[in-house]
Design a protein that fits this description.
The protein has 260 residues and is α/β, with parallel strands linked by helices. The protein contains seven helices and eleven strands. Strands 4-3-6-1-2-5 form a six-stranded antiparallel β-sheet, covered by helices on one side. A five-stranded parallel β-sheet has the order 10-9-8-7-11, sandwiched between helices. The structure holds flavin-adenine dinucleotide (FAD). Pfam families: FAD_binding_6, NAD_binding_1.
Length: 260
């Protein structure tokens, strides 16, 4: 099968709710789409460790991007994990699909600057807001797969309103155990006190304490809305971390990066 350069129909095999969402929260569902039995995201050219994503074209509304959330080597199917917004054109479209229905999907679409940001970084900080974990987690896994003398520590800070908004707790716990000492996971809940979690928004003081041991030249990936990313980068800068070389990143963007 050729890479998904153009939009093509993919059949929905399964749909499962991962989180109903807390108060004021929205549900998060996993959608499993069919691939030919001998085909995986990897054979289609995806590198999830570098943030490659798919695009979904709803019948009405704008094309939207989603980070595949299943192992890149899995043959026969792939998952998207999507937060369903009320009135959301694309998330609502996906949510309206029944098993057996098709969605128009293309990919891989790249995050061109990520390879540059992570290049030769021994300390990698990943900051994910809500469903942004779908992009951050494969990046964490791919960094941890590198030898210790290449990547020493990966810290994932995951911000949600409440525990009910979270999912993949078991998978994350397994990672903490498997990469003990190299992988640190911090859950930040803005509206709930809970043992093992920090009660806080993701702000300068939380960033300072979470990444206290990181050298100021560490590499960071922030995944969330534009506003969240902007505020977090500003806070990282205020903590003394180097802000990403934005100018260089933009110059490296391929012609179609704005389609995201
Ligand atoms: C590279 C990349 C990867 C992404 N990966 C994922 C992923 O794996 N899973 C996923 O769920 N999303 C992901 N997104 C976000 C996704 O592309 C859409 O922006 C999102 O699904 C909303 O699109 P929509 O058409 O449903 O909503 P729209 O029709 O654009 O918006 C309708 C209403 O929904 C609400 N809404 C939309 N977005 C938000 C928001 N972020 N917070 C609060 N309310 C909102 C607003 O009230 C808005 O008025 C990713 C985005 C990028 C750029």
């Amino acid at each position: 099968m050729k890479p998904l350069r153009q939009f093509r129909p993919f059949q929905l095999l399964a749909k499962e709710t991962l989180s109903e969402g807390g108060e004021d929260g929205f549900p998060v569902r996993r959608f499993t789409f069919e691939l030919p039995s001998d085909c995986s995201l990897q054979t289609l050219g995806f590198d999830l460790g570098l943030g490659d994503f798919v695009q979904v074209r709803p019948p009405a509304g704008r094309v939207r991007s989603y980070s595949p959330a299943s192992p890149v080597q899995r043959t026969g199917s792939f998952d998207l994990v999507v937060k369903i917004y009320p009135g959301g054109r694309c998330s609502g479209h996906l949510d309206s699909l029944s098993v057996g229905d098709q969605a128009m999907i293309s990919g891989p679409a790249p995050v061109p600057w990520l390879a540059y940001t992570l290049r030769q970084q021994q300390h990698v900080g990943l900051i994910a807001f809500g469903v942004g974990i779908t992009e951050a987690l494969p990046v964490a896994l791919s960094q941890l797969a590198k030898p210790f003398d290449s990547v020493e520590q990966v810290v994932l800070l995951w911000g949600n309103r409440s525990w009910k908004d979270t999912f993949w707790q078991e998978e994350l716990q397994e990672m903490v155990q498997q990469y003990a000492g190299r992988f640190k996971l911090v859950y930040a809940l803005s509206r709930e006190d809970r043992e093992g979690c920090v009660r806080s928004r993701i702000d300068q003081s939380l960033l300072q304490s979470t990444f206290e041991t990181f050298p100021r030249s560490a590499g960071f990936l922030v995944v969330g809305t534009k506003q969240m990313k902007k505020e977090t980068r500003r806070a990282l800068s205020a903590c003394g971390f180097f802000s990403p070389p934005l100018l260089q990143m933009k110059l490296r963007m391929p012609w179609n990066w704005r389609r995201r």
